[in-house]
Amino acid sequence: MKKNKSIIFLIFLFLSMVTFSATFTIPELYIEGVLAKDGSMKVAEILTYDIEEINGVLFDIDAKGYGEISSIEVYEDDGVKEGEYRYKKVDNSNYEITVDDELYKIKLYSKNRNNIRKFAFVYTLPDAVKVYDDVAQFNRKMVGQNWEKSINNIFVNIKVPVEENYDNTKILAFGHGPLTGDVKKNKNEVHYSLKNYYPQDFVEAHILMETNVFSDIDKNKIIHENEKEELLEMEKKLAEEANLKREKALKRQEFLKSLQKYKEVVFLLEFIIWLIAMCYIHIAFKRKNIYKDKYGKYFRELPNDYSPSLVGTIITGAPDNQEIFATLLNLIRRKIVILDEAPDRNKLTLKMGEETLSREERIIVDIYFNDFGDGESVTLEDIKGKVTNRVARKFEKWRKEVLSELKYKNFTYEGVGLVKGILFFILGLVLFIGGFFQIIIFNSLLFFFLFFMGVLLIISVFKVKKPKGESQEIKTKWEAFKNFLADYSQLDDGSITSIRLWEHYFVYAVAMGISDKLVKAYKKALNMGQIEGFGATEAITGLSLMELHSRKSFYNGLSKTTKTVYKRSMADIAKSRRTSFSGGGGGFSSGSSGGGGSRGGGGGF
To answer: Is 282 strand, coil or helix?
Structure first.
């Protein structure tokens, strides 16, 4: 048992180490390099870490081409005293150093959380300077490219081994890296600075000096060649390239600045183009109907034998709770379901078998009478019960069955077309992505709206469809029939005289969302004596639909309950789907003068 616990603990420890991710930022990197007359350089690199949580610090020194490093000292801050950071040397047991191809990789163990710490690495490069017959050269990437994080501020100070009153015009200082970097000379020191360093950037120092500055260098290390002119020519070329880039950037900046005067005009033009595209999709394309004039505003009879749920889906665009309610009412109209009245409660009773039902009707009967009811009858109180996953899946099955039935009847839809669809999609993508760039270019949040405009256009390309060919003709007829029922009370028509016909039309009015308008027309026709009643046999088989509507409590209760259970079912289904230059200073050149040290970097663990 104890062995099992140990194994579990080790597994947990291993997983913790694997999944842990160091979280920190580096506000500052300060590097001081002191050149000696023997050509060596003592380097101190001080890192400031703003830590959320780390187990330690990683630091790499690329010494290739600068001689073997004999010793490396590691320090960490020991608090602040008299306004200055104090440092203590880290014991050798708290860090590891590995060397591969003259790349020194340091792993310092220092667990920290929610604090700011400083770490210093001190080492000496024995062969920092190359001495030729006519010039002495220091050339090194003081900040390498392999840092894990960006660094807010970098400062590099290099001290030349001469007196402070030395004529520093004889010290030619160049810098390479991002063009935003800067180089300055102050007495016998050269200062490099860079804001906002990003991984893969570098800061390279290139300093040319007189040969007698390094009087103590090993004579065997002197290279007997004249390199000064070639080095200056190289720097001239790099400077010209950098200045050309700066000029282009300046012209671009001036152009963008002049362009900002017209930001409202640019946005207005983009909005107009977007509006034209949206109008085409939602008006010119979607509402184009070659059958509209053929049938006029009204169609005075049922266009075909489609069920109420199919018609409701055609008119509204998707099967919903009102199509379910219309299906129930249609079953009552056909006497397949009977409404039984009782003093305390009403119930629906199934009177006929499923052999007379369509597939979509069978699913609704199964839900209401088997899942909600006792197999033969159901009350409102039964329906109001908790919706199970089983019921939710059946409602989803009903929805798919309705759409499948429409497809079986060759009722199909078409989009805007491949070519236009691609063009509109590209336009939406351009607006969406371009919004980000234009916020920067014009320095205005006005272009933030382009994000939403682009998204709406892309959604419209995929979502907006209209009935295709004969399907458009079918929809046009049903829309004209809907207008006829909705406006019947205002028409001097009087063509609907049978109560049976009123009920038949009523279930379609429910599916199309105009039941209240048809009931208003029914009451008017009834008061005018235009409606014939049921026969004696039919009158005793239960309430008519029009009478049922007059019983507001039950009718509204059944309608509201149907809506509630369907919406709740669809919400459950939705949840389940979601599972799973000159040398006198100035700016940096963008190229490199060939200095080593590019593999330097660091991070945390």
So the answer is: helix
Q: What is the pLDDT of residues 487-541, one digit of tens each?
A: 887 776 667 878 888 889 889 998 999 888 888 888 888 888 777 765 443 443 4
% of the chain with per-residue pLDDT over 90:
40
In this model, does residue 439 exceed pLDDT 50?
yes
Q: Looking at residues 359-369, what average pLDDT do you find? A: 89
Amino acid at 454: G
Does the global pTM surpass 0.85? no
Beta-carbon-side half-sphere exposure of residue 13 (alpha carbons within 13 Å): 6
567's CB contacts (< 8 A; 6+ apart) are 321
User: Under DSSP, is residue 29 helix (H, G, I), strand (E, B) or coil?
Assistant: strand
Identify the pLDDT of residue 1. 47
Distance CA 438, CA 256 (A): 10
Radius of gyration of the chain (CA): 41
User: Could you please report the per-residue DSSP string of 505-522?
Assistant: HHHHHHHHT-HHHHHHHH
Instruction: Report the distance separating Cα 49 and Cα 77, nearest Å.
Output: 11
145 Cα distance to chain centroid: 30
The closest of 189, 130, 123 to 161, measured between CA atoms, is 189
Look at the chain and count its residues.
605
Q: How far apart are CA 486 and CA 494, in angstroms?
A: 14
3-state helix, strand, coil in the chain (%, to 5): 45, 25, 30
Residue 448 to residue 466: CA distance in whole angstroms: 31
The mean of the pLDDT values for the chain is 84
* Residue located via tokens 């990003």: 198
